[in-house]
Fold this protein.
Amino acid sequence: MVDSEKVLQSIIEIATCPVCYTRLNVSSALCVNGHAVCSDCDDNLSQCPICSASFSQEKHTILSQIIASLPSICSHKGCSLLTMDLEYHEKWCGYRPTNCERCAWSGPAKTLKAHVTSNHKLGSNDTNKTCHIISNFRKSYARLQHGQVFWEITRNNPKEKLFSIQLLWVPNGDIVEDVFQMKVEFATKETSYVANTRIKFDPENSLGTENCLIFHKDIIKHFEDNGSLSYKLYLTKD
């Protein structure tokens, strides 16, 4: 009985550039003896790296069609999934590399949960945080909620009179379609202030303005106590 998976794997290996080991593309070049290299390597070669023959100028339509119909292998270390939509898979792949915000650890995103659970204190849904907002700072806390790992990142910029709280989601291999809300509450015995925003689950999210609440000094000054600011952060699932 033919093992179709092994046959497919063999074809994919054949359709790999012998120079840079990436997938041959529809613009790949063939030498007169039939050996192929990708178009990027072809730009830097004057002869075939296998047999030293010259490259053919003919178009190879059938080869291009075969290459275009083949699935791609995920490039993340540890993942060997074959997919027809490589860009989409690698965006959500649990093996995509990530770093720990609290230490020098780095590894596959799907293993970050185990790392922070073993090595760092995790924040809960209603943990009070107190920050000294006199100086300029950036702090990170690991949060594990609803089966997801988040970095809670606080920043203070006295010069700009801005204080911000951001949740950075860490991909774990699952496509998240749930809707979450982040709510931040400042309170005293006399008054309170609440702000909220919808959490966007985007593996490509950088530390920009996504999933972030920014507060001006004019707002938070009512909740300061000798240079300290306390708040509660809630992460709820709609």
Summary: The CA atoms of residues 97 and 107 lie 5 Å apart. The mean pLDDT is 84. The longest strand covers residues 148-157.
